[in-house]
Sequence to fold (184 residues):
Amino acid sequence: MSANGRRDPAGSMMTALERDGGAAVIYYPDLGLRDWLIGEVESLAPASARPVRVAEVEEIFAHPDRLVLFVSDDERRAVEDLDGNRDRLRAPARAPFPVVLFLLRDGAGQRALADAPGLASWVRGSDPDPERLAEVDSTAERAAFAESTGDVPEAWLARWRRNEIPQTAENLAHAYRAALLVAP
Fold:
């Protein structure tokens, strides 16, 4: 929750991405937004995360020191395979970045997650819901962003992408918020 009592989508996303190992889920309402969210996660991740996209569970283990973006065309099977490999994902060698699984809102993967209580409890709290972004008062959020950073989202994000702004946790959250506010 933000200071004004509203849910903070950027904060929720950052919490999921800052997990020390483990798994996180990002829900998307359609394939177009999934591709956009994946691109944003890749561009906003710290350089040390070196994000990599994979489509199969076994590929996750080839990248133990990277932020893994798990994007599968068969989300039900992906959830089942992740659930079956939870112990391997929890191994210390899998840290320091989480595996981020992208699931279609109300799709087969989300239903499979409901049938995998162990995995579901493990990702609970690290499962931001981008549909909430549609509820954002963009004018108010842009004004709040400018007040907190001293710049409009477009200009701030351009400076971030040119590496003119230090990569701190706070600035990573600002970068995510800015990206959300300038998204088409």
